[in-house]
Amino acid sequence: MSAPHTATVRVQGGPAARGRQYGARTREQIQTSLEQYERVYATFAGLSWAAATEVAGTFVPAIDAFGGGLLAEIQGVAEGAGVAFEDILALNLRTEILFSGKARKLAAGGAAPGDLPGRGECTSFCDLRGSRPLAGQNWDWIPFAHRTVVVLESVPDDGPRWVSVVEAGLLAKFGVNSAGLTILTNALVTSQDRGEPGMPYHLLLRALLGAGSVAAAEEIVRTAHRASSANYLIVGEGRGVDLETRPGGPDTARRQPVERGGLLVHANHFDGLDPAVARDHGPRLMPDSEFRQRRALELADAMGEPSVDGWHRILGDHAGYPDALCCHPNPRDAELDRGSTVASVIVEPESAVLHLSLGHPCTTPRLAHSYREFFDAAAPPR
Where along the chain do its domains lie? Predict the structure, then answer.
């Protein structure tokens, strides 16, 4: 499946102005996002849309305290799309809203693989073994996201320019910026994920795209009071840093560096979580996670000199089909239980080139997008 409604949107200005431009230019796709997530929240969190927006509202103080103009950006998207602020906020808190419902099921002892939407999630990598660094990921989600995926190119008044591949209405997901950073990510789930207010996952990804260095991005992740577990893979300056995090602050983040000559692959389970501290629910809720990570590592070890073509073959691999690295909807699953690789990216961080497949990498052409000229026009980040 390809992405027939994919939009590339370039915005500029302050947070509110960029938000209004983004919302206005993706209004139809945002409406699709709202309609679909109303179904998702009802099915998996047991929440009506009105109840979901109430949950989202409890996060406003934490987002406001974090700063960075994120609330103004959300308000701008809402104004541009002609919807309520609470609607766009609820989209951006999809992880926290879903996990609040999951937490109630876990507390009752009833959570199972079908208690989160889709199958699989994301497989990311950082490969520094070759002559040039490579990084990237597959993003797997519910098939309706094929109709809402957006390539968002942003020119802020302040700080680095950035590009993110994201669902319409969300501020950011994975991407790159003009400071030379590549931000990749994987959803994680632990017994401590209860949907309690803190800095939301997708808004933290947006903040990372505004960072001016690897160290600054790492500091953002470590010091924010995070609402959800997640893995953040930060690549730049010829190195990588992987941060496995649980809800909370600095003491709930585990750091793993990736140096020249190194390789790291991450999926949707923890590699370094003490079960005495928290239970890793990833293997239970996303049962193909361990296989995807192991399979990618095996194929990477057999690749020889790392290359874009080599990683394209890995990300398009079908072992374990349909729950494979290249994930395809299983017609035997209920509609919202199906997973699909919505986007696949391989980044050359040093040359600012994104090799992007908006759809299944096995069938969708991978197009090279050079952002060097776009990034070089930016003022140096403060």
Answer: 121-376
**Distance from C-alpha of 74 to C-alpha of 86, rounded to nearest angstrom:** 9
Strands of the sheet containing 134-141, edge to edge, are 263-266, 122-127, 134-141, 340-348, 353-357, 367-370
Angle at 299 between CA 297 and CA 300, to 5 degrees: 60
Nearest-angstrom CA–CA distance, 166 and 203: 12
pLDDT category at 7 given cuts 50, 70, 90 is: confident
What do you get for the CA distance between the two ends of the chain, in Å? 41
In degrees rounded to 5, what are phi and psi of residue 267? -120, -135
The per-residue pLDDT for 3 is 39
Q: What is the pLDDT of residues 222-259, one digit of tens each?
A: 999 999 999 999 999 999 999 999 999 999 999 999 99
What is the domain class of 121-376 according to CATH? alpha beta
pLDDT tens digits for range 17-68: 999 999 999 999 999 999 999 999 999 999 999 999 999 999 999 999 999 9
Mention every residue, 6+ apart, whose C-beta is less than 8 A from residue 222: 243, 249, 250, 253
Tell how far CA 247 is from the center of its chain. 16
Q: How far apart are CA 6 and CA 357, in angstroms?
A: 11
The whole model's pTM is what? 0.94
Residue 288: name the closest of 146, 123, 125 by CA. 123
Pairing of strands 367-370, 353-357: antiparallel
